[in-house]
């Protein structure tokens, strides 16, 4: 992955789809870099729409999210077509692997046999070629939300098989659930959801394969403190210390337990006043 000028709209749409998958995995950028062949900074650039990811990176993220890759690969193909044509005959270098000498050979085939069906179908670059790609790939894109029931029902199972956690048992105690992959879809269950009196959203989450529980919160005010309490296991806490942390989810470190139903989540408001605690028992 390499830097470059802002990408075409097709690449922005691909980046949005990748961000959705990344959020589904529950992995941080650092954890994503550890679990794939691409660095944290490379993922950051791709997810922000600043460059085109390699096809293999798209496939890797689909595997981690338990997502059948066809829809995202169709988006990637359109983005690749737009990227290839944006600089005329000299597109910028990127990490998508190509065989040495392959491109000149393809151009020669198109020049010598413009009426042959196979080269036209496979080697589209820009202009009318982009339209052909869109027509060919549109049914795949439109079917993204209409996949058959068997594929939809298999997503959670696929995520569970492919997203091996980075810790288990005592090795998870005090660790970040998302860095360890314990918060990935198909692995985590939400035991409790509550809204505090001032609107803050509080959750208790549990990953059986990690053997650990943690609290997650969103909509906090600056300085609000969220605590996960478990009898005999002490307290784990997180504080909204920046504006960004008031606009996204924050999570406490994990607590290892064999009985997650005994956990409770408490909000300690920065403005003072009484604490609010919620639990299942």
The assigned structural class equals alpha+beta
Tell me, rounded to a whole number, the average pLDDT.
75
- Rg for CA atoms: 23 Å
In the residues, how many domains can be counted?
2
Spans of at least 5 consecutive residues whose pLDDT stays below 50 are: 87-129, 145-162
Share of residues in helices:
25-40%
- Structural shape: elongated
Span of the ends, CA to CA: 49 Å
**Total number of strands:** 9
Protein name: XRE family transcriptional regulator
Pfam family, one: DUF2690
Structure report:
This protein is an alpha+beta fold and 281 residues long. It has two domains: 9-149, no CATH class; 169-279, Immunoglobulin-like (Sandwich), CATH 2.60.40. The chain is built from ten helices and nine strands. It has helices spanning 9-25, 29-35, 40-47, 55-65, 70-85, 102-112, 117-122, 128-142, 149-162, 243-247; strands at 188-195, 201-207, 212-218, 225-230, 234-239, 250-251, 255-256, 264-268, 276-279.
Sum up the structure in keywords.
alpha+beta; 9 strands; 5-stranded antiparallel beta sheet; 281 residues; Immunoglobulin-like
What can be said about this structure in brief?
By secondary structure, the chain is an alpha+beta fold. The protein has helices at residues 9-25, 29-35, 40-47, 55-65, 70-85, 102-112, 117-122, 128-142, 149-162, 243-247, and strands at residues 188-195, 201-207, 212-218, 225-230, 234-239, 250-251, 255-256, 264-268, 276-279.
């Amino acid at each position: 992955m390499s830097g470059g000028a802002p990408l075409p709209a097709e690449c922005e749409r691909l980046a949005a789809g990748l961000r959705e998958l990344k959020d589904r995995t529950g992995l941080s950028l650092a954890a994503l870099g550890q679990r794939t062949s691409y660095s944290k900074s490379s993922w950051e650039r791709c997810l922000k729409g600043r460059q085109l990811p390699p096809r293999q990176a798209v496939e890797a993220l689909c595997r981690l999210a338990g997502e059948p890759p066809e829809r995202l690969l169709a988006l990637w193909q359109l983005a690749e077509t737009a990227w290839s044509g944006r600089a005329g005959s000299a597109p910028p270098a990127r990490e998508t692997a190509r065989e040495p000498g392959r491109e000149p050979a393809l151009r020669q085939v198109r020049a010598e046999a413009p009426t042959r069906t196979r080269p036209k179908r496979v080697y589209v670059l820009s202009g009318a070629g982009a339209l052909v790609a869109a027509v060919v790939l549109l049914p795949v894109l439109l079917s993204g939300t209409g996949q058959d029931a068997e594929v939809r029902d298999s997503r959670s199972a696929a995520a569970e098989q492919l997203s091996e956690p980075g810790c288990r048992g005592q090795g998870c105690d005090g660790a970040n659930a998302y860095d360890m992959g314990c918060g990935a879809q198909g692995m985590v269950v939400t035991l409790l959801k509550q809204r505090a009196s001032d609107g803050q959203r509080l959750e208790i989450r549990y990953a059986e394969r990690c053997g650990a529980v943690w609290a997650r919160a969103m909509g906090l005010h600056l300085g609000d403190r969220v605590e996960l309490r478990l009898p005999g296991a002490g307290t784990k806490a997180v504080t909204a210390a920046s504006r960004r942390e008031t606009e996204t989810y924050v999570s406490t470190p994990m607590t290892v337990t064999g009985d997650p139903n005994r956990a409770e989540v408490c909000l300690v408001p920065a403005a003072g006043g009484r604490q609010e605690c919620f639990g299942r028992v």
